[in-house]
């Protein structure tokens, strides 16, 4: 059954009457948190099923989770409660990725909703595994596993969802070429009277690819080409078939009334441990709901809701952090910093908020150090935090402390190496350990990924060589001073190198200004689309964690995938490899208010 593994690898606000009157509870299992206004009994059953499904996928495919964030299930008791948080007109449930936790949102949690539970959980799995499928395949795979059902000591998967074939045969057929082009902005994803064909036809095409010859044998290769190029190229290159041929085969396959599922030799676990329940305070129940409101176009309503939370519990840190991010996204840097500071003072342990806050206040080393220190108290393994903590110490004239912070690091990834050795080099030099500074500079030169890093390393090595030569001349001059034939000119130009010269400014990178119209997120390396004098330019964000993003007033920015509002930005970039199909590799983004 290896091809199954390849499939996974390969606004009204909460303040409304219904929500205000609802009693919310929280249940915790080993791997999930569930917040619900439904009854405790059905909530326990649903949470137990989530644990069983998780165990099934791990047993069958292994743990593919590359993003181990907490998973929060929000289950509404009624359609009326759910309506303000509905993702679109079609979604009766949805998965929403977050920076600190992921959400699966449901309505009416009960056994009839279990296919929906599996469907959304598969979306979470593919996201956490770093798989970026086109929309039809993403929904098709989720539907393929949604009907899994225990049969004795085995599991049946791939059975047609109830009414799916009939629905597809009754509705107007969407040609395969049209199906492959559906994206998150398409009516076939967002409009209720059209979305059905996406799910039914996406399921049928996925089912055919996974279960029939010759498709299933080359499914892994197909997915690789599909992600790198497009559907038409993948079908032609892997299977030698045009979209018209695939269309005819799919129609014949969909008319086959004997489509069945397949048996996997595993079973659902029975014991999932104790599922503890506790009542939620109004603040805690509304906090989770506010986080579901954070969608583009809903900023004013979400901000009002957060402000109500602050008024309700002014000593809790969570709402200040949420408001800080809203201000940040609105390019109000000072307001964002103020709210992050309030969250910090209220005792926030949010690693995400502390990390962002610490970097935003780098010009205030004391506050920056305090933020990074708190993260390390909870997770001493965070190398990125340790590096920035050491950098803040250096800026605060505590170079020896910075060296001590970095000395405990015994293993550095290639991605972290340039920043690590740069900070270590400066700390070594400032603590007067010149021999160690030379070693760090040589390491920086070895692992540098751009010209500015190489320049910093080479300048340090040149300076250290110069100082070594100067020291030798000083010694010779001292010997001459003890003799009658003193030669003052020998000591000219032997003054110490100033601190400001220890690292020369990096060479400037080329920039290009234009209108930011779209961010493509079809892979783990997004592509930024910039319109410059009417011409679309493509810039690959190949190192997302190393891109400096600032607004016109110095405010750091966040971006979301998809179409953009057309902000004026300036892209700092380096040359892209030949044949990459992009105009450059992003190293910095500067928003302009002008």
Sheet/helix structural class: alpha+beta
Which strands sit side by side, in order, in the main sheet? 4-5-3-2-1-9
Major β-sheet profile:
6 strands, mixed
Query: CATH topology of the largest domain, anyone?
Result: Neutral Protease, domain 2
Tally of DSSP β-strands: 15
Q: What is the level-2 CATH architecture name of the largest domain?
A: Orthogonal Bundle
Kindly report how far apart the N and C termini lie: 58 Å
Sheet-strand content, in percent, reads: 5-15%
Please report the number of helical segments: 24
Uncertain spans, ≥5 residues at pLDDT below 50? Answer: 1-20, 479-506, 552-556
Instruction: Give the count of structural domains.
Output: 4
CATH class of the largest domain: Mainly Alpha
Estimated helix fraction: 40-55%
Please, could you describe this protein's structure?
- The protein folds into 4 domains: 263 residues, Orthogonal Bundle (Neutral Protease, domain 2), CATH 1.10.390; 70 residues, Tetratricopeptide repeat domain (Serine Threonine Protein Phosphatase 5, Tetratricopeptide repeat, Alpha Horseshoe); 107 residues, Serine Threonine Protein Phosphatase 5, Tetratricopeptide repeat (Alpha Horseshoe), CATH 1.25.40; 81 residues.
- It is 49% helix and 14% strand.
- It is built from 24 helices and 15 strands.
- Strands 4-5-3-2-1-9 form a 6-stranded mixed sheet, sandwiched between helices. A 5-stranded mixed β-barrel has the order 10-11-12-15-14. A 3-stranded antiparallel sheet has the order 6-7-8.
- Helix 3 crosses helix 5.
- The radius of gyration is 29 Å and the shape is globular.
């Amino acid at each position: 059954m290896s091809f199954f593994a390849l499939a996974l690898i390969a606004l009204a606000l909460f303040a409304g009457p219904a929500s205000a009157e609802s009693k919310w509870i929280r249940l915790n299992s080993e791997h999930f948190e569930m917040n619900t206004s439904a009854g405790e009994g059905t909530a326990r059953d649903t949470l137990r099923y989530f644990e069983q499904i998780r165990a099934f996928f791990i047993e069958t495919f292994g743990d593919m989770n590359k993003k181990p964030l907490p998973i929060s299930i929000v289950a509404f008791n009624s359609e009326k409660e759910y309506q303000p948080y509905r993702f679109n007109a079609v979604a009766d449930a949805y998965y929403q990725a977050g920076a600190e936790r992921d959400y699966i949102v449901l309505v009416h949690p009960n056994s009839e909703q279990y296919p929906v539970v599996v469907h959304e959980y598969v979306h979470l799995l593919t996201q956490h595994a770093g798989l970026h499928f086109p929309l039809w395949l993403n929904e098709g795979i989720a539907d393929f596993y949604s009907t899994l059902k225990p049969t004795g000591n085995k599991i049946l998967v791939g059975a047609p969802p109830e009414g799916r074939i009939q629905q597809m045969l009754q509705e107007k057929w969407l040609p395969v070429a049209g199906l492959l082009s559906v994206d998150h902005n398409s009516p076939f994803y967002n409009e209720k009277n059209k979305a059905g064909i996406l799910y039914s036809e996406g399921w049928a095409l996925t089912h055919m690819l996974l279960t029939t010859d010759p498709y299933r044998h080359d499914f892994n290769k197909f997915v690789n080409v599909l992600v790198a190029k497009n559907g038409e190229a993948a079908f032609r290159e892997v299977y030698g078939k045009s979209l018209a041929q695939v269309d005819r085969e799919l129609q014949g396959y969909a008319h086959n009334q004997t489509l069945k599922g397949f048996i996997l030799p595993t079973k659902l676990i029975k014991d999932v441990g104790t599922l503890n329940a506790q009542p939620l305070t109004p603040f805690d129940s509304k906090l989770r709901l506010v986080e579901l409101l954070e969608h583009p176009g809903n900023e004013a309503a979400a901000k009002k809701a957060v402000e109500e939370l602050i008024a309700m519990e002014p000593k809790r840190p969570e709402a200040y952090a949420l408001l800080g991010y809203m201000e940040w996204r609105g390019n109000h840097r000072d307001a964002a910093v103020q709210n992050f500071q309030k969250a910090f003072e209220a005792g926030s342990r949010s690693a995400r908020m502390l990390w962002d806050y610490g970097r935003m206040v780098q010009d205030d080393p004391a506050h920056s150090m305090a933020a990074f220190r708190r993260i390390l108290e909870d997770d001493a393994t965070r190398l990125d935090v340790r590096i920035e903590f050491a950098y803040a110490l250096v800026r605060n004239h505590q170079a020896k402390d910075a060296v001590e912070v970095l000395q405990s690091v015994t293993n550095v990834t290639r991605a972290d190496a340039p920043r690590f050795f740069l900070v270590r080099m400066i700390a070594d030099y400032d603590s007067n350990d010149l021999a160690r500074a030379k070693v760090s500079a040589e390491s920086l030169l070895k692992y540098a990924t751009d010209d500015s890093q190489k320049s910093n390393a080479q300048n340090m090595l040149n300076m250290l060589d110069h100082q070594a030569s100067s020291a030798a001349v000083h010694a010779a001059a001292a010997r001459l001073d003890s003799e009658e034939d003193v030669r003052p000119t020998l000591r000219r130009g032997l003054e110490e190198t100033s601190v400001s010269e220890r690292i020369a400014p990096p060479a400037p990178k080329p920039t290009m200004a234009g209108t930011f119209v779209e961010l493509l997120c079809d892979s783990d390396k997004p592509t930024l689309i910039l319109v410059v004098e009417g011409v679309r330019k493509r810039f690959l964000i190949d190192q997302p964690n190393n891109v400096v993003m600032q607004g016109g007033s110095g405010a750091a920015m966040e971006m979301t995938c998809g179409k953009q509002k057309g902000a004026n930005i300036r892209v700092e970039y380096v040359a892209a490899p030949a044949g990459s199909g992009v105009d450059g590799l992003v190293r910095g983004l500067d928003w302009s208010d002008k």
